[in-house]
Amino acid sequence: MDTGSEPMGTGGHHGSGDPVGPALLWLQDTVMTVTLQACKMVLQGALLLCALGLLLLTTIFLYGSFYYSYMPLATYSSPVHYYCNFPSLLLPHCLRLSPEEWQEPGDDIQPALSDLPGSGDARVASQSGMFMVKISCYSRQGQPVTYSARSTMLRYRSGLLQTADQRQLVEVELFSQYREDSYAPSIGAIIEIQSQRVQIYSAQLYIHAHFTGIRYFLYNFLTLSAVMGLASIFFFLSVLLFFSYLRLIWGLAGMDESEDTEHLQDDQDDTTAESDEVFSEGEDTASKRSTMRRCRSWRTFLMMIQWSVRRQSSWVQLAGHQGNFQLSEGGEVLKRFSEVEAVCLQALMVDPLRPFVPQYHGSVTRGGNSYIRLEDLLSGLKNPVIMDCKMGVRTYQEEELTKSHTKPTLRTDMYQKMVKVDPTAPTVEEHEQRGVTKWRYLQWRDNTSSTSTLGFRIEGIMMENGSVKRDFKKMLTPAQVTEALLSFTKSHLHILKAYHSRLQALDEALKESPFFKSHEMIGSSLLFVHDWTSKASIWMIDFGKTIPSPSSVQLRHNVPWAEGNREDGYLIGLAALTSFVDQAISQAACIQEENHGEETDSVTHTLQEQEHTQTKSQGEVAQNEGCLHSAESLAKSQTLRATRNAKRFDGFQRALDLKNIYTDPDLVSQNIRAILSRKTFMDAVVKIIEENIPEVIL
Ligand SMILES: O=P(O)(O)O[C@H]1[C@H](O)[C@@H](OP(=O)(O)O)[C@H](OP(=O)(O)O)[C@@H](OP(=O)(O)O)[C@H]1O
Ligand SMILES: Nc1ncnc2c1ncn2[C@@H]1O[C@H](COP(=O)(O)OP(=O)(O)O)[C@@H](O)[C@H]1O
């Protein structure tokens, strides 16, 4: 689509024709943008690091908990309490172990008994010979579960080693492999030393686990399994977090299976060709559908990521009914369907106004609601700056007025909105009813804003940092509008100029437009859009209350409205807006010129300046003079008002207090910014004081 927009920054030559000013402004912008970006990135980086750190800690905690709950002790030892079965000297030793300690289900264990037979001399050792050690495991009910008996013997020690320690440690493996029956687990065991000669000082029972499966892996490859375990938990949590994030930012709830199907149906036209190519003749419709759905899911997923990135960077609904919009794929927005608007958009697609209207792609149904598909005017812009201006001298249709007379419906919500802005606005009767008709509210809105007088009003502005300002409800005066335009464009001449020529082009297109001639444009807006790297453009949006005018009425759009004439005053608003942009251009040029002048003052000599002035072309000189005049007269009138402010003149001391004059609440409320550091303002102050308050000696 031909955007018809004006490229910004026309070679860096602006009002003054000197490239230094714009270059400095550009540099200032770039530095500011880069700083903002850097801050944003640092903040995002810090947040990301925090999230990653938290994720890592959670991962470690989860893995640790899993490891310590899933992995039993590899070796367990328990003291053996024994007693002598006199006179046979059989020494059965009893020990009690809880089933859990005894073993983990499913793993083999290997109980072994270590004895410390305290054979004080070699004679005992040589006489004891081979002896048996028997273990009998019993269940909770005292029933024998299993038993095992193993033979062992003490090593021989020479009688010559009289002074040496005669103790021996004997290790006996009682079970080479023991598998627990989970229905009758062993809870204890009796161990018998079947010998009359062995003397025992103490005994210890060791249970060694033989791990299998995951436990084997976890135990034998500790580092590898830890790395793998941590990585998989981390991945799983990240995916979970990612989907939660996606769901959070554009409510995936709406994108359920039914929507997918609807989407499939909506796009049937586009997909038929695709389907024909992808599927063979023989495949039945059901399988085609399911395969298409699968493909669509993946496409939807990729789209979701794309929208997420796009949405974060730009899209915003500045005005209008909240919840009316949804983002869609391929640089589109979906706006809640309105028959009136759809018909207008359809007609506008073949009208000379087409380059000023977002592309209309028909309608679509999502989650049971119908939407019109519109080109996303913010698509592709980086940190866009946007302004919504509602056009026309009235925002209500004549039918609304008729309705308020014939069958008035009171609106509490509108009464509340009214009271919020101005508690004195409703009449006594309206206060009593706690309601106003829609016409009354809309008319009040038009009268309290610049709509009735200037033919347009600013609804909202979003700056490049995402901050949104919507409190223009009481903006009435031309000075306020110009101030808003300057702040919206940050006094950038190239942007203001681009807007100016776009407005002029729109004016031309409106003159040619059959649609415009035959339609009453109520509540329609101009959306101003620019960013610092791309283009500045203006778009016509919102045709929800744009209706064909009766054939008997020939609309002119530039005359005031009177009941029955159907005039909307669209061109009044457009002309006013164009002239305010023009004024803003002049002021921005002056500011730029002054800034440039101040810089020059501080760096170069007056002679150099004169020389520089002489080399300027006639036209530039004339423009600068005009600029100085307008700035001077502006400064003069503003400071005159400021200095006449009695509270600043001290008659006794014969002095004028100009301290904090820039932030003086009286002046600020009148939209006067007396910047005394500016040469023109200071000159004006001196002149005004000389002329008007001669008693003040500076
Ligand atoms: O801007 P505020 O003061 O909030 O008032 C709004 C706007 O005038 C809306 O017009 P637009 O859509 O042109 O922005 C209008 O919608 P209509 O289009 O229905 O007239 C709303 O009426 P309700 O929707 O009835 O509340 C009204 O409450
Ligand atoms: N095509 C579009 N592209 C981008 N943003 C849009 C588009 N249409 C509308 N908007 C945004 O939505 C806001 C409200 O649009 P509008 O059509 O006036 O809605 P409503 O009919 O609810 O008043 C606009 O101020 C603008 O921020």
Automatic annotation (TrEMBL):
Stretches the record annotates as Disordered: 260-291
Enzyme superclass (EC): transferase
Signal peptide: none
TM spans (from-to): 41-63, 217-246
Chief site of localization: endoplasmic reticulum
Domain annotation NXF1/2/3/5-like leucine-rich repeat: ranges: 647-696
InterPro entries: IPK, IPK_sf, LRR_dom_sf, NXF1/2/3/5-like_LRR, Seipin
Any one GO CC term of the record: endoplasmic reticulum membrane
Gene Ontology BP terms: inositol phosphate biosynthetic process; lipid droplet formation; phosphatidylinositol phosphate biosynthetic process
Keyword Lyase attributed: no
UniProt-annotated location(s): Endoplasmic reticulum membrane
Entry superkingdom: Eukaryota
Membrane topology field: Multi-pass membrane protein
Keywords on record: ATP-binding, Endoplasmic reticulum, Kinase, Lipid metabolism, Membrane, Nucleotide-binding, Transferase, Transmembrane, Transmembrane helix
Catalytic activity: 1D-myo-inositol 1,4,5-trisphosphate + ATP = 1D-myo-inositol 1,3,4,5-tetrakisphosphate + ADP + H(+)
Recorded family membership: Belongs to the inositol phosphokinase (IPK) family.
Protein name: Kinase
